[in-house]
Write a structure and sequence with these properties.
The protein is mainly alpha-helical and 161 residues long. 61% of the residues lie in helices and 4% in strands. The protein is built from 7 helices and 2 strands, in the order αααααααββ. The protein has a two-stranded antiparallel ribbon. β1 and β2 form a beta hairpin. The longest helix has 33 residues.
């Protein structure tokens, strides 16, 4: 294939990738909207976008900006970060859907959310270390909690082995 043909193919592949991302985020938004039992019109109003524009996003005809995704996330009461990841604007962070669920929970304070995520991540690190043949003693002391300078150890059935 000639150099010009290669460039056209790359452009076509890029356009196809953008369209695929648009369909993915649109389908994800529709799924979240249906789970929340919110109509297209209601979400459009909550997000401050027009009904036709939101419909085009859901059908994969438009790719929303980060700002629009943030407004949609607010209307759906989910994490904007989850939409950014789904749209390919942001890499998925550690914790995945568990951390997303904690972040999206409006009944928790920001401090509570951070503590829950920290505890969850410390358990994951501990389990990964154990699976790779490491012992819990090798894990970093900064992973735990300290009260008045003393370390607090939380025992679970998994840690009592």
């Amino acid at each position: 294939m000639s150099e010009g043909g290669e460039q056209v193919k790359r452009v076509d592949d890029t356009v196809e990738t953008v369209q695929e991302l648009g369909r993915d985020i649109g389908a994800y938004i529709r799924e979240q909207r249906n789970q929340a039992e919110i109509s297209l019109r209601q979400l459009a109003k909550l997000a401050g976008v027009s009904n036709p524009y939101l419909s085009q996003i859901e059908r994969g005809l438009r790719k929303p900006s980060a700002g629009i995704l943030q407004q949609i996330a607010k209307g759906l009461r989910i994490s904007a970060e989850a939409l950014y990841v789904q749209a390919g604007m942001l890499d998925e962070r550690a914790g995945g859907p568990i951390a997303d669920a904690v972040v999206a929970d409006t009944s928790l304070s920001e401090r509570q959310k951070q503590v829950l995520i920290d505890v969850y991540e410390s358990f994951r690190r501990e389990n990964l270390a154990r699976q790779s043949g490491s012992t819990a003693a090798e894990s970093s002391t900064t992973d735990g909690f300290r009260v008045d300078g003393r370390a607090i150890v939380i025992e679970t059935p998994a840690t009592k082995e």
